[in-house]
Amino acid sequence: DVVMTQSPLSLPVTLGQPASISCRSSQSLVHSDGDTYLNWFQQRPGQSPRRLIYKASNRDSGVPDRFSGSGSGTDFTLKISRVEAEDVGVYYCMQGTHWPVTFGQGTKVEIK
Amino acid sequence: EVQLVESGGGLVQPGRSLRLSCTASGFTFGDYAMSWFRQAPGKGLEWVGFIRSKTYAGTTEYAASVKGRFTISRDDSKSIAYLQMNSLKTEDTAVYYCSRGLRFPDYWGQGTLVTVSS
Q1: Which stretches in chain B have pLDDT values below 50?
Q2: What sections of B1-118 are H helices per DSSP?
Q3: Which of residues 28-47 of A touch B (CB under 8 A)?
Q4: With an 8 Å Cβ cutoff, is B105 touching chain A?
Q5: B 12-31 near A (Cβ less than 8 A)
C-alpha cells in the first residue's frame, strides 16, 4: 500500500499568518493516464470531510482562494495564505492513484 | 444540489450484520462510482471500498480489513448505494461515510455511526 506521510501533525497558527502542510507518498502518484490523484480534505470539528483540492492543484468551487495545492510525483503541499478562524480543523491528503486509496494521518490546525 | 445521506447505523453485537444505505440526489446517480469510507472515534479516515458505475460493470473493490465481510451494491433506480456489513468486529466501530467518485471523491455525506459492542 502507498504510505502517505503528513507533516506537521499539529500546526498552531496565528490568525492572518500563512500555514503550510506537507504530504509525501511512498510511491509516485502519477497515474498511467497522466493525472496525479492527490487530494486535500478539510474536516472541521463535528463535520464530514470537505474536498478542497483535487489532482494536486485544482481548487474546488467555493473554496477560498487563500487555499492552494502544489507538488508532483511524491511531494505535495497545501498552503493557506492567511489563516482565518474558520480554517480550524484537521486536514488530510489522500491518494487515489493506486489501490487501495490511502490517507495521510491528518494535520490538526489550531489558532494560537 | 448534490446530497448524500447515509442511514442504517446503530449499535450491533460482534458477529452480527448491518446494512447501511447512502441515498443520493441532485445528480445522475447511475453515471458515478460510489465510495465508502470510515473514521473510528478520534482517528483518521480509512477507505472501505467502492462500486463502479454500470458503464464499468459495477465492479467493486475493498480494503483488506473488510474484504470477505463487507459487500457494496447499488440500486440505480432508487439512487441508493448499500454497504452490507457481516461478521462485524469491535474494530469496525466508526462513522461511515459515502462519497461520490473513486480517485478524487468530491461530495460526502454526513456519516452514520456504527457501534459494535456486546
Answers
A1: none
A2: none
A3: 31, 35, 37, 39, 41, 43
A4: yes
A5: none
Rg (chain B; Cα; Å) = 13
What's residue B26's pLDDT?
Answer: 98
Q: Cell numbers of A94, please? A: 489522500
> Does B90 contact chain A (CB < 8 Å)?
no
A15-54 confidence digits (pLDDT tens): 999 999 999 999 999 999 999 999 999 999 999 999 999 9
- Residue found under cell 465508502: B36
- With CA atoms as reference, the chain B residue closest to A90 would be B44
> By the 8 A CB rule, do B1 and B26 touch?
yes
* Helix, strand, or coil (residue A96): coil
**Cβ <8 Å between B44 and A106:** yes
- CB of A45 closer than 8 Å to CB of A88: yes
Q: Which three cell numbers stand for residue A4?
A: 502517505
Q: Which of B98, B77, B102 is nearest to B19 (CA)?
A: B98
Are the beta carbons of B108 and A50 separated by less than 8 Å?
A: yes
CA-based nearest distance A54→chain B, Å: 6
Dihedral sign of CA atoms A61, A66, A71, A77 in order: negative
Contact criterion met (CB below 8 Å) for A77 and A69: yes
